[in-house]
Amino acid sequence: MDKNAYPLFAITRLGDHALILGQRLSEWCGHGPVLEQDIALSNIALDLIGQARNWYTLAATLHPRFTHEDAFAFERGEREFTNFLLTEIPNGNWAQTIWRQFFFDAWHEAYLTLLTSHAHPDVAGIAQKSLKEVKYHYKWSSEWVIRLGDGTDVSKAKMLETLPFVWSYAGEWLEETYAEEAEQSGWPGEHAVKELWWERVRSVMGEAGIPVPMEAPYKTGSAKGIHTEWLGYMLAELQFLPKTYPGAQW
After folding, report:
1. Is 249 among the domain residues?
2. pLDDT tens for residues 5-18?
């Protein structure tokens, strides 16, 4: 990928992260452990889907074929999505959802912070607006990691039990995929947020009394459109109506 193609890739990818995780979190609606947290997750899901709309709307101004935000969500196949694998893994139990949200939020807040000074005013503007929401997301998920890890024997056991699975998907932002192209086109590459992410993870997990796994996260591939089987099922549900009734107006 050359530096001229990277901005569209980066903008679309930010939309993909937000859309897929927002869709996944929406599955908790009506199923949360208590009403307050059910509403909290529903609001986070709505925040993310709103962010996806903003990124896709901007991407539509650069894309040669897709000219509307809906096209990015409903007209692409699985191999055209570039969201982190972490965002598409199942919710599992409450502990698994909290780990997934925390690891993503720790990256998301760091990355958006860097983007707020981007030279492109639309990119910086969307990042600034999104960051206001994501700061809350990070606060919410990190507090839950501490609450469960430093809570009861049962809650800590659940956190320890689900950590290895989620951790194995939590490292794609540690890769330097397209780092050179990102730097040449004025975007922070994944390498730029490594230390910020590690700092957050070590601090919160230390306060929760849960050791950071020794092995590095290793499952990757989403930047090149390689995903888990779970994404296909999600897209089948997400895209069912637009594909069944193409061009329908709501």
Report:
1. no
2. 999 999 999 999 99
Could you write out the DSSP letters of every residue in 62-117? Answer: T-SS--SHHHHHHS--GGG----GGGGS---SHHHHHHHHHHHHHHHHHHHHHHTT
On whether residue 1 sits in a domain, the answer given is no
Q: Which domain, by its residues, includes 60?
A: 6-244
Q: What is the tally of structural domains in the chain?
A: 1
Residue 175 — very low, low, confident or very high, per pLDDT cuts 50/70/90? confident
CA distances in angstroms from 9 to 5, 75, 97, 137, listed in the order given: 7, 16, 27, 24
Tens digit of each residue's pLDDT (9 = 90 or more) over 84-126: 999 999 999 999 999 999 999 999 999 999 999 999 999 999 9
Q: How many CA atoms lie within 13 A of 208 on its CB side?
A: 30
* Through-space distance between the first and last CA atoms of the chain, rounded to whole angstroms: 37
CB atoms within 10 A of CB 36: 8
- Would you state the structure tokens that stand for residue 85, as one six-digit string? 């694998």
- 49, part of any domain: yes
